[in-house]
Amino acid sequence: MENRIEKIKKQLHSQSYKLTPQREATVRVLLEHEEDHLSAEDVYLLVKEKSPEIGLATVYRTLELLSELKVVDKINFGDGVSRYDLRKEGAEHFHHHLVCVECGSVQEIEEDLLGDVEETIESQWEFQVKDHRLTFHGICKQCQNNGNE
Q: Which residues lie across from 106 on neighbouring strands?
């Protein structure tokens, strides 16, 4: 984890920002719960357990800054709640998600499935793609198996 924090610190410094103790506390929570797709409120409650002096507004500002700097990706799975997902180290693009409409589980797809689509968009529409995200909504294997019983 310390290695990732050091890399994030360098990423912030390269954009003239510092990794303040409040920002570091937020980043640590995101790293500790990397698979959980936390909302800002979730992050705040977890930060508050370790650093009660950090306020909700500080956590919101930190998450927005980290989103702007592409340290985290701000995502919405159609439930009206923004969630924050650490961008994988070295990832050129946002990763994709499978969202179960039955149980709400979220699976991540690390493989970039849209390389050919990007090339088509760039050549046919002369549109320079900077990033993309893909979310599939459906029924996970577990819920399918439960429905068959």
A: 99
